[in-house]
Amino acid sequence: MIVLRSLLFNVAWLSWTVILAVGAVPALAFPRDVGKGVARIWTRVILWLAKVIVGLRYELRGLENIPADGGCIIAAKHQSAWDTFLFHGVLPDPVYILKQELLRIPFIGWYMARAGMIGVDRSAGAKAMRHMIEAAGAAAAEGRQLVIFPEGTRTPPGDSRPYKPGIAALYARITHPVVPVALNSGLFWARQSFIKRPGTIVVEFLPPLPNGLPKQVFMDTLHTRIEEACARLNAEAGVPLPPAATPPTADKAVENSVEKI
């Protein structure tokens, strides 16, 4: 039954994505708020399809930790493709920090670029880091919520990889609060998995980190808070964890570039 429901859901959400991507092309000619509305509709329909077809629901905790004025940095655990569209339906005006090549994808990339998503060329070193900080600072000044996945890639539940230096650079140069986010989405919508499992994904917005922490203290605190909260959410779900993956070698060129800015 799970296989059949997963098949129906995968066909439904991919079909919906294609239909909306093609049908909403005229929105590219309108102000960014129109595109933001398209993204919100896209997200809410996918979440509804997941609930109706698969029995996959979600629960949001700690929403009171998101600053009332909107401007903040959302530093989220990344376990699943599910995470990449959730924040469109939760935050008032999110802007994702993502790989530059994603903006080149036909249709989807066009919408992301029009919505002001910040692409980072990871091969450009310090230049890419400066561009990210400048673009992120401008977005934060507009009251938008910066969404960044500190690990830089999806990580299986129960696994942890070194946090990339981009989040430390943002913390040091943008005065908005950093809100850590823990979740357990990978237990139900695993990376590169056809199967989508019923249950309840929990997303928890943790209290913001204080400003002015030394870089290493900030990175250690952020890592500890997110990983400990994720471990708690994983245990709470009562779903077996997948085999742990081997962490990739850190990109030293990008890490070193932070010190050059």
UniProtKB/TrEMBL annotation:
Keywords from the UniProt entry: Acyltransferase, Membrane, Transferase, Transmembrane, Transmembrane helix
Segments for region (Disordered): 240-261
Superkingdom in the source lineage: Bacteria
Organism from which the protein derives: Caenispirillum bisanense
Record pathway: Lipid metabolism
Ranges where the Phospholipid/glycerol acyltransferase domain occurs: 72-186
The protein, known as: 1-acyl-sn-glycerol-3-phosphate acyltransferase
GO molecular function: 1-acylglycerol-3-phosphate O-acyltransferase activity
GO-annotated biological processes: phosphatidic acid biosynthetic process
InterPro entries attached to this UniProt entry: Plipid/glycerol_acylTrfase
A Pfam family assignment: Acyltransferase
Sequence intervals crossing the membrane: 7-29
Origin organism lineage: Bacteria, Pseudomonadati, Pseudomonadota, Alphaproteobacteria, Rhodospirillales
Residue stretches of biased makeup (Basic and acidic residues): 252-261
PANTHER family attached to this UniProt entry: 1-ACYL-SN-GLYCEROL-3-PHOSPHATE ACYLTRANSFERASE
